[in-house]
Amino acid sequence: MRRLLAILLPGLLLLTACGGSTAEPEPTSVSAGETAKFDSLKLTDNGDKKAPGVEFTKPLEVAEPTIKVITEGSGETVKANQVANISILALNGTDGSTLEDTFPGEPEPLELNDELKTSSEVIYNAFVGAKVGSSLALAVPGQQNAPSPSDGASPSPSAAAQPTQLLIIKVLSAEDVAAVLEKPEGETVTPPAGLPTVSEKDGVPEINVEGVAAPTVLVSQDLIKGNGATVKESDTLTVNYVGVTLEGGTKFDSSFDRGEPASFPLTGVIKGWTQGLAGKTVGSRVLLVIPKDLAYGDAGQGEAKGDLVFVVDILGAK
């Protein structure tokens, strides 16, 4: 979803105002906007991992967000609360030039949840009820030039006119969202000697660092090996965790103390977490012993100084 939002740019903000009724979506994909503008649109399939050929009458201009299934797939119907895995080709509506092409890469996940329904109901209603294999066209209105400043100064670069954007979005697959676990689930693993020891009190892990030598490399050790999906660096994780300093064992952070799991993109945390959790499985409890250069460096962050130790319960990934 984040990728889709980034490509749509400021025009996506208009979608909220054009969503229509908040009633439950129809069982089939719902078109919206000036769909007659798509009458000249033709797509040519170029095979897997390749964007389709696109022909349309130029310039394409719309005054409101417009979306429609252009070619219908033959797969299963996409349902509410599933994740649609999509590829996107974004084009300049004025000249047809390519702005973005995600077809050669990995599919982008779009979660069809209540958050999307509230913020962008037009998109939600078009995807829910579409069939896997379908290609949708989404036109996002452009922005006009901002008025020149009254003092005669040149307008800022951000005031430049933006053309209508045309997005061709192919639904490659759809899958149910895995439920977030309440606690780690899997096979208990006996760690090697020399690592911090972990006990549990009332379901909360407690870390003992006594006698543990400073790490020379990142240590990522399963304490419980989960049976769920494998974590990718691009995933957003839901976790419970506790963190202590290796020197002295001072606890500096704990989601358990806050009473609820934390969610974050794995690309947005310290390197020790990104490198140490990618490749693990949902349901795992992981012991991380992180050298300071993969944590917060010499300066530290608050009480999190030097080499750090975490116990992380991976409860969900998407």
Name a few traits of the molecule:
5 helices, 17 strands, mainly beta, seven-stranded antiparallel beta sheet
Structure description:
The protein has 318 residues and is mainly beta. It has five helices and 17 strands. The chain has helices spanning 2-8, 114-119, 121-127, 255-258, 271-277; strands at 42-44, 53-55, 66-71, 82-92, 98-101, 108-111, 135-140, 165-176, 186-188, 197-201, 204-208, 219-226, 236-245, 251-254, 262-265, 285-290, 308-317. Strands 9, 12, 13, 14, 15, 16 and 17 form a seven-stranded antiparallel beta sheet that branches. The radius of gyration is 24 Å and the shape is elongated. The termini are close together. The relative contact order is 0.15. Residues 16-23 and 146-151 have low confidence and may be disordered.
> Helices and strands, in N-to-C order?
HEEEEEEHHEEEEEEEEHEHEE
Overall mean pLDDT: 88
Helix content: under 10%
Number of strands: 17
Number of helices, where a helix is a run of at least 4 consecutive DSSP H or I residues: 5
Distance between the termini: 11 Å
In percent terms, what proportion of residues is strand? 25-35%
Largest sheet: 7 strands, antiparallel
Please give the radius of gyration in angstroms: 24 Å
The structure class reads: mainly beta
- Low-confidence stretches are 16-23, 146-151
What is the approximate shape?
elongated
Give a nutshell description of this structure:
The protein has 318 residues and is mainly beta. The chain has five helices and 17 strands.
